Amino acid sequence: MKCLIFFILIIFLFNSCKKLRDEVETNKVFLSGKGLTDIDGNYYPSVIIGNQEWMANNLKVTRFNTGDSILFAKNDSIWDNLAYLPPFNTLVEIPDNPIYSFAGFDSTSNPNFGYYYNVKVIKNDLNVCPVGWHIPSSNEWNSMIDYVSDPETFGLYSKSTGILNDSTGYWDEDINYSSNETQLSIEPSGFYSTVLAYNLKIYQNTCLASSTFGTYNTKYGSYPEIKVFLMDNKSYKLKLFETNMLVGLPIRCVKD
Question: Does a structural domain hold residue 177?
Answer without folding.
Answer: yes
